[in-house]
Design brief:
single chain; 514 residues; mainly beta; two-stranded antiparallel ribbon; globular
Length: 514
């Protein structure tokens, strides 16, 4: 879906509003503009500075300007609408990726940097009763974890840039009929086109493996919740994502050996709803497309004063074995504290992430062994990777958990996850020091052993630290000043990667058709 189409949609809406203001109630518009500057000692920003920020900042040095405006839907009204736009631009330094020159058989440094200007979000949305629809590119966030303190949702973390498309879903949780409010349902489904084809072509080494461009992406979730007015609230359900279509170019020792156009017909779109074999589809070996998702469960207990204690688990799956809980302890396990009032500690999380089982150490298909093995074995789920798609990522950043090292950091030009067989811990805390100053701190440790098809003989590890101070001065509450410090120590990323960031953001609002 072309960017110009989204612009026309937003312009048309604005013209309609301007031509007939009497038909609209007053429109409240929030807007903001800011400047962000970061610097570090390695080619790419430290893990915590780059992560969970929509893929907007990844390089060693950046001076970026952002501007945005949006109108929020009023969910209390039968009919409501909203729209938004967010632009980023400026200077970012380059990082060197390996590129193979087939004419002389030599690798050389391929210097790459993000675009100097891009549209991060551009969308219109509307609701009628309990159903809403969105057209365009809007940042999605986790329906399970705390986006400011967590290591990241395993299916939809908000770590990568959003795709452009359309989605339909419920507005918040809705009562399930005949349950008298004891059971509620929330969910959505969307189809998107990701814009990382040029990014893959520019960062790929053109020596081995493959790149797949021009593909579609589907994301959906359905969560049930018990009555929220009770002290104990249980939320459970599933998230699922699906990459399909596109063209895969396979390279061996610098020569293109095969080019495959995968299906993006009606059947492929239907397989986003019910995964299954594509039969003769070029994108099908076992199940058409790349599927990944989680089973989700969360328990919220509200204390008498309003403080909430929360325990949650996301069990990751790649195929039927994971859906059937045959992947051991794998997934995200977390506990969260949410204070009823602002104070020295407003919230805290502690998480454990394990991707080491992947449905077992042995991958077995009866066709591979011609019946030599009579028992059942399975494995090699290879989380976030796929034989036909370059990992579950957009512009090199994981769409799922950034706790798994994103392909962006593969400066060898290998466009996939190389260290998804990992486990580790993450902790985050935030609080309010005064009416002007707040803070956030995070610490993590992880160890990785390659992936199931390319395991490491010895593991690599990383310890990351993040500190943030936010100042909202009393003399100008529309202004937000942020300072961040982050560092990575270990062999998983770059040794002793240290960096800092400062930003100034002004936020305001205006009203049309008073």
């Amino acid at each position: 879906m072309k960017l110009t189409h989204h612009i026309l949609v937003v312009v048309s809406l604005a013209m309609a509003m301007a031509s007939a203001p009497a038909a609209w109630d007053q429109v409240d518009i929030d807007y903001e503009g800011g400047v962000t500057v970061n610097a570090g000692n390695k080619e790419l920003a430290p893990y915590y500075i780059a992560s969970n920020r929509g893929g907007t900042l990844t390089q060693q040095y950046s001076t970026l300007v952002n501007a945005g405006a949006w109108h929020e839907m009023d969910t209390t009204r039968r009919f409501s609408y909203g729209f938004g736009v967010e632009l980023w631009g400026g200077y970012s330094s380059s990082a060197d990726y390996d590129r193979y020159n087939a004419s002389n058989g030599i690798f050389y440094n391929n210097s790459q940097h993000p675009a100097r200007l891009w549209v991060q979000q551009l969308y219109v949305e509307g609701k009628y009763r309990s159903v809403s629809a969105t057209l365009g590119a809007k940042q999605l966030e986790s329906p399970v974890v705390n986006s400011t303190l967590s290591s990241g949702d395993l299916t939809m973390s908000g770590n990568a840039r959003p795709g452009a498309g359309v989605n339909v879903g419920f507005v918040n949780f809705q009562n399930v009929p005949y349950t008298h409010g004891w059971l509620q349902l929330c969910g959505e489904i969307g189809y998107y086109r990701l814009s990382d084809g040029d990014w893959l072509e520019n960062h790929y080494n053109y020596y081995n493996n493959f790149i797949t461009t021009g593909y579609w992406y589907n994301y959906k979730y359905a969560h049930f919740r018990t009555k929220p007015s009770q002290p104990l609230v249980v939320t459970f359900g599933m998230q699922a994502a699906y990459q399909f279509g596109g063209t895969r170019a396979i390279y061996e020792h610098g020569a293109e050996t095969e080019r495959v156009k995968m299906d993006d017909n009606a059947k492929a779109f239907f397989r986003a709803l019910i995964p299954g074999s594509g039969g003769s589809s070029a994108g099908d070996t076992y199940v058409e497309g790349n599927h990944v998702g989680t089973w989700d469960i969360a328990l919220d207990y509200k204390l008498p004063g309003g403080t909430v204690l929360r325990a949650y688990h996301e069990r990751i799956w790649e195929d039927g074995s994971g859906v059937g809980f045959k992947n051991g302890f794998d997934g995200l396990w977390g506990i969260e504290y949410r204070a009823a009032h602002r104070g020295v500690v407003d919230g805290a999380v502690l998480e454990y992430v394990d991707f080491t089982n992947q449905s077992g150490p042995v991958h077995y298909s009866q066709d591979d062994h011609h019946g030599e093995l009579t028992g059942h074995a399975t494995g090699a789920d290879n989380y976030y990777n796929n034989y036909a798609y370059n990992g579950y990522a957009n512009h090199g950043m994981s769409i799922g958990s950034p706790f798994v090292k994103s392909p962006l950091y593969n400066t060898g030009g290998y466009m996939a996850y190389i260290d998804n067989m990992m486990r580790g811990f993450h902790a985050g805390i935030k609080g309010t020091v005064s009416h002007e100053v707040s803070y956030r701190a995070m610490l993590s440790y992880r160890r990785a052993w390659g992936n199931p098809f390319l395991p490491r003989a010895r593991g690599v590890s990383d310890t990351s630290l993040f500190l943030e101070t936010v100042i909202v001065p009393s003399w100008m509450r529309q202004l937000t000043l942020t300072a961040q410090f982050a560092c990575d120590f270990g062999t998983l990323y770059r040794r002793n990667n240290v960096g800092g960031l400062v930003s100034i953001v002004y936020h305001g609002n205006l009203t049309l058709f008073k």
